[in-house]
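re: that chain from earlier
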Amino acid sequence: MTQIEEIANGVYARIVEGLTNSGIIVGPSGIMVIDSLRVPSHARALIDDVKRISDKPIKYLIDTHSHWDHSWGNEEFNDSVIIGHDNCFKEMNDGEWNEKWLNTIVSANDPWSEEAKTVNITPPNLTFRDEMKIFFDDREIVFKYFGKAHTSGDIFIHLPKENILFTGDVVQNKGIPFFGDSYPRDWLETSKKIINVKPYMFVAGHGKIGNYTDMIDAKIFVDELINDCINIKHENNIDIDQITKIYKQKYSGWRKIEAIESTIQDVIGRL
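^ sequence. v structure.
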């Protein structure tokens, strides 16, 4: 189910249950879209929703990070400036990275698996290193890079006036992020910087819209998980099954908590 919510004047969150969210920012002369979704057909559905909001041109597309489910719809935005981090550009140009993800997607035999075979992976054409600020008509938008976390090139889109933050997959509202490509030790430091933004509201790449309290809860979870995994890696007598059981009880109701055992293995593998 797709739900589009206007969270501030001209700012929309497109929330898709079970799949990938996106953002839509409408200005007087054009539109900015955050994340193009997983395959071109999903991107076209997103563009159709944008057109129902406004017939203005899509001037900018933002890649929060390189993962396929956020960026493999980029090819549908031919006339837009595509903004991402330097590392996002590098990852999307990495043939081995792309082949790994394609094999994973095709072998999953999902409804989009066949379409993924023909995707024209289209990296950002405007990148930055630490921070970039633009004035999108009369609205200030700040793109921030706080360090490696979920990937090496996660960025955050901050609207200072509204104090809204688009967080990609690094911060989720009661959801378990994917750690398979992560940098766990860096993530601990990156989380500290994100918290300092203190947004009134955040829109994650998956799941529901959150507030600052939800963001703190997400940080507590990530910190606890990574530190537990560090201990597991260096201590031979820790019972992983018992830790898994504790997490399932403590974070009952969180999205993807049922996969916490494989998540723990992912974190350990990336330490």
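The domain at 2-212 is CATH 3.60.15.10 (Metallo-beta-lactamase; Chain A).
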